[in-house]
Design brief:
By secondary structure, the protein is an alpha/beta fold. Helices cover 31% and strands 22% of the residues. The protein has an 8-stranded mixed β-sheet with strand order 6-14-13-8-9-10-11-7. A 6-stranded mixed β-sheet has the order 2-1-3-4-5-12, with helices on both faces.
Length: 315
Amino acid sequence: MTPASGPVPALARPARLRPGDRVAVVAPSGPVPEAALAAGLDVLRGWGLEPVVAPHVLDVHPRLGHLAGADRDRARDLTEAWCDPSIAGVLCARGGYGAQRMTDLLDWPAIRAAGPKAFVGYSDVTALHEAFAVRAGFATLHGTMTAVAAFAGDPATRESLRAALFEPETVRVLGLGTARPLVPGRATGVTLGGCVSLLAADLGTPHVRPSARGGLLLLEDVGEEPYRLDRILTQLLRSGWLDGVAGIALGSWEECGPYEEVRAVLADRLGGLGVPVVEELGFGHGPTALTVPLGVPAVLDADAGTLTFERPALI
C-alpha cells in the first residue's frame, strides 16, 4: 500500500465494544510484568469483557532482554488476534521497545481483509498506529495499556479508555484542565501521531506517510532530555515531515527534565510553523492519560484547550 501524497485522510473506524466481547491482549514491544498484567485483566473483566491473552505475551527474548520474546512470535500473536473473527479488539499490554522490529512481519493483506478493530496502545506502539493508518487504513486509539500502572491505578485514565471503547459518543471533547495555548488559534484536520521519538525513527523507512500535511498532530514522549527533543523535532522539521501540518496537540513529557526547559524547546521548534499549538492536553505518559482517537476528523482549539472530534472514534 503506497502512502498517500495528499492531506492526512480520515480512516475506517472500528465497531465499539460491548459487554461479552472477547478482546486479545498482545505484547508487541517490551517484557510484560505478570502481576501488572493480572491487575489489568481484572479491570477488563470488570467491564464485562473476556480478555484472551496471546500465547507469547509473557515471553522474554533469550538474548535481548528488552524484548517480549522473538519478533516473529510477537508479530504472529498480533496477526492471529486481528484475523480471529471472534476477537472484537486488540489491546497492547505495554510499550517499551520492539514494535518497529515486528511491524514488517505482520500479515498486512490478511489484516486489511479482516477489517478494522479497536486497537489500543501508546508509547512504542506509535509505530503500529502509523502502520495501521498507512498500510491498512484503520483508525486506532492512542490510549493506556493493560499492564501499565495508570490503567489499574488512575480512575480518570481508566474511565477515558472505557468510555472511548464502549460509549465513544460521550467523549467527543478532550482536554484536561492543564491545557493551554502555546500558540493560539483554531485548526481542523485528521488526528495522527503519538510518541515523537518513534515518529522521527520512522523517517526513511518503507510504508510511512510522507508528511503530516493537513493533519492535527499529537506529540508526547518520555525520558528524552530537552536537547534530545530539540534534535528529534529538528529532524522532523528538516525532513519536511511537518510541512503543512494544520495544528499540534502536545501531551505529557514525563522524565524529560524541568517542564519550562522542555516548553522552551517546544516553543522554539514548533512556534515557527504558524499553526495553533496546545500544550498539556492530557495524553501520553503522564499520571492521567486521556485516550485520543487517531485517524478521525477533529477541531483543535488551542485557546480553549480542547480537541473536539467531529464524529465518534468507534461506530
